[in-house]
Amino acid sequence: MIAEGGLAALWLAAALSLLQLIMGAVALTPGREEAGAMVRPVAIVQGLLTLLAFAALIAVFVMSDMSVKLVAANSSSMKPLLYKFAGTWGNHEGSMLMWVTILGLAGAAVAIFEHRVSNRMLIATLAAQAAIGLGFFAFLLFSSNPFERLPIPAADGQGLNPLLQDPGLAFHPPTLYLGYVGLSVAFSFAVGALVTREVNAAFARAMRPWVLAAWILLTIGITAGSYWAYYELGWGGWWFWDPVENASLMPWLAATALLHSVTVLATRDSLRAWTVMLAVVAFSMSMVGTFLVRSGILTSVHAFAVDPERGSFILALLALYIGGALALFALRVSTVKEGAQFEAVSREGALVVNNLLLTAILGIVFVGTLYPLFVEALSGEKLSVGPPYFNSAAGPLALLLVALMAAGPLMRWRRDRLKTVLNRMALPILGTAVVLLLVVVFAPPIGVLPTLGLILAVGVGIGSVAPLWGRNLRRTPLFTWGMVVAHLGIAVSLAGMACESAFTKETLVAAKIGETKQVGPFSVRLDDVEPVAGPNWTALEATLTASRNGGTAFVLKPQSRSWPNPPTETSESAISTRWDGQLYTVLGKQDEDGRWQLRLWWKPFVTLIWLGGGMIALGGALSLFGRVRRERRYHDRIAYA
Amino acid sequence: MKGFVLKPSRNLLGEGDRTKCGDRAAGGGNTLRFAPGPSTIPKQGLARILAFALALVATPALADSNLPAAKWANEQLPDPRQEAEARTLMLTLRCIVCQGQSIADSDAELAGDMRAMVRTRIAAGEKPEAIRQWLIERYGQWVSYKPLVEPMTWPLWLAPLVLLGLGAFLARGRFRRHR
C-alpha cells in the first residue's frame, strides 16, 4: 500500500505542476491576473506531495519490502538500518526521485519565502520551475518508476554495492543534489526575469541568496565527495578528473561565476544579460551532469545506443529546457541593456576577468569531458582525456584566477588606480617572494605547478585577509567576513593540493609478520593479520604499529573486506591524522611466500585540501546569513518608517 | 597465466568487475551516480582484454610475467628516480577493464600487470613516452589519458585559446576606453 500511495502522490504532484504551469502562463496574459492567486499554494502543495512520495520510497526501503522491484534489486534485509535508509538513493530510480523531490521543494521554498520581487515575476518564476518539474516527473513516471511491484515478491534483495555501504552515502548525495537542483531556482528566476522584462538589480538581489545556498551545498558536496573517494578507494588519490567528478565540478564553476556576476548586477546594475546567461548555464550544467551520469553514456557510447530509452529521454529534456531558455534569451536580449561600462582597474573590472577565467575553465572541463564522447559517436575512435590534459589546460588559468583573487577585493568599485592597488598588495607580494625563495633554496625539486601553487597559496592567503586591515572588525559586515573566509579557504585548499603533490612519500611493499617498513618519517611494523567479522561482511585485519622518528607508537588497522551480497572485495584504509598531514595505510593480498602487500603513504598537509573546502562553504554561509539579515533589517526599517 | 583477469567471467562482464576496480563512479566520487547501473563492460571490452593479455604474453619484456604475481605489480623500483618516472607514467595510463581509473590506482589484476610492465620497461631504461607510444600503437588512444596532438584532437587543445579569445572579445565592450 505504501508503494501505491507513493506512486499516487507522484502522479498528483505531476498533475499539480501542470496546473502550476498553466495557471502561471494564464496569469501573465493581461486581464487574467487573478489566475496567479493559485500559483503559490499549488507550488507548496506540489512540493509537499513529492516529499510524501520520497518518504514512501524511504519507508519501503527501511521495511525491506521485497515485493517492490527497486528494493529487491538494490537492498537486502541483512543490511544495517542506516544503509537500508540511505540505499533509497543509492540507485537510479531512487536518486531521480530525490532529484525531483528537491526540485519540488525548491519551488515550494520560493513560493513561501520570496517576497522581494514583483508578483508577476514570482509567478513567471514558479511557472518556469513547474515546467522543469513536469519534464522530470514524466521521466520518472514513464521510464524510471521507483514504485514498480514484482509479480512475485523476492525472497531477499540483491544487496547494495559495498563501496556505497559507508556513512558517506547518507550525506553526500543529498547535499550534492540539493546544490545541483537548487540551481534550478536561479534558472527559473532568469526565465521569469526575461519573460517579465525585469532584469535589474532587484532581480539580482532576490536571486543571490538562492544561488549562494545552492553553491554552499555544492561546495560541501564536492569536498565531502573528494574525501570519501580518498579514503574509500584506497589509493590515496583525491581528485581524478573523472567524467562523473567533472559533472559535479561544472555546475560549481558556473555557480561560482554567477555568484560574482550577480554581485556586480546587485551593486552596480551592470552585466545584466551576462548574469541571466550564467544563471541559465549553471542549471544547464546540472542537467548535463545528470544526463552524463544517468544515461550510461559515460560507460560507453554503445551502451547508450543499445538501451537509449532513459538517455534519450533526459537528452530530449535537456534540449527542450536549454534550447527553450536560450531561445527566450535570444528573443529578449535586445531589450536587456548591459548597464554602465567600467574602468579596467576597478572591482567590476576584476570581477569581469574572474568571470572570463571561470567560464574558460568551465569550457575546458566541458570540452574535455564531452569531446571524447563526441569523437566516439562520430568516428568510433575511443579517446581518453584525463589529468594531463586538464592540468595543463585548466591549471594555469586556475592559478591566474587565484592570483587575481588576491587583488580583486582590494580594488574599489567604479574606479581605482593601479598604483594604489599595488600598494595595498605589497605584503602579499612580499609573502609570495619569500616563499618562492624558500622553495628554491630548501625544497627538493618539485614540479612547476606545485611550486606555483605553493607560493601563490601563501601570497593569496595573506592577500585574502587584506580587506580586513584597518577596518573596525566588529563593524565589518558579515558578508565581507564571508568573502574573506571563502577566499582564504581557496588559498588553504591550494596549499594542501600543492603539498600533497609535491611532498607525498609512497611505500609499496610486501612484508612478513613482524617486519618493519619505512615511509617518510614513519616506521610501520606489521604485527599481525587476523580475521574479523562485521554485520554483513568478513575481513582480514592487519595490526600495524607505527611511530614517527622513534616517538610514541600508535596502532592502525586497515582491512581487506569480503562482502557476500553482492560478492565483492574492498579495502578499508586506516588513516592516522597528524597536525601536519596523514599517514595512510592499506592492506593488500598475501603472496605465495606468505608476505602481505602493504601500501603506505605519508601525505604532508593533505588535510588542508578539505579544510579549505570547508572554509569556502563556511564563507558562503556567513555571506548568506549576512545578506539575509541585512535585508530583513532594511525591510523592518521601511515597515517602521 | 594466473596473473591475468581471465578467471571468472563475472569479473569481466558483470558487476563484479566494477567493484573490483573500486568503482569511483558508483562509490567514492563526487557523483550523481551511486547505483550499480546496467552492466558496464561491453562485449568490446572483453575483446580488448583478450587482445591485451595475448599481446602481453608475446612481449619479450614480460617473458617472466606468467609467474603468479607479476614482480613489479605492487612493489616499487629500487631507484627512486626511476620509480618516480614510472609512477608519473602510470597515473596517466588507463586501466582498460575499469571505469575511469588509472593503472596507478586500481585493484584490478590487469592494472597490476600493466604496472609490472611499466616498471620492467622503465628499469630496462626505456623512456616513458616510448612506453606510452608502444601502448597506444597496440591498444589505441583509449589507454592513454594524455590525448595525442593530431588533427582529431586539435579542438581539444585549441579550446582553451578559443574560449579565452572569445571571452575577451565579448568582455571588451564592457570596459570604458580612455581618451
UniProtKB/TrEMBL annotation, chain A:
Which InterPro entries does the UniProt entry name for this protein?
Answer: CcmF_C (IPR032523), Cyt_c_assembly (IPR002541), Cyt_c_biogenesis (IPR003567), Cyt_c_biogenesis_CcmF (IPR003568)
Sorted keywords for this record are: Cell inner membrane, Cell membrane, Cytochrome c-type biogenesis, Lyase, Membrane, Transmembrane, Transmembrane helix
Task: Tell where it localizes.
Answer: Cell inner membrane
| An MF annotation (GO) of this entry | lyase activity
Q: Domain of life of the organism in this record?
A: Bacteria
Q: Describe the location of the Cytochrome c assembly protein domain by residue ranges.
A: 89-295
Any stretches that span the bilayer, and where are they?
43-63, 96-114, 121-142, 177-197, 209-229, 249-266, 273-293, 313-331, 352-374, 394-413, 425-443, 449-469, 478-498, 605-625
Domain Cytochrome c-type biogenesis protein CcmF C-terminal: residue ranges: 315-627
Pfam families per record: CcmF_C, Cytochrom_C_asm
Q: Which GO terms describe its biological process?
A: cytochrome complex assembly
The record's Gene Ontology cellular component field reads: plasma membrane
Task: Report the main location listed first in the record.
Answer: membrane
Describe its membrane topology: Multi-pass membrane protein
Q: What family name appears in the similarity comment?
A: Belongs to the CcmF/CycK/Ccl1/NrfE/CcsA family.
Protein role: Required for the biogenesis of c-type cytochromes. Possible subunit of a heme lyase.
Q: What is this protein called?
A: Heme lyase CcmF/NrfE family subunit
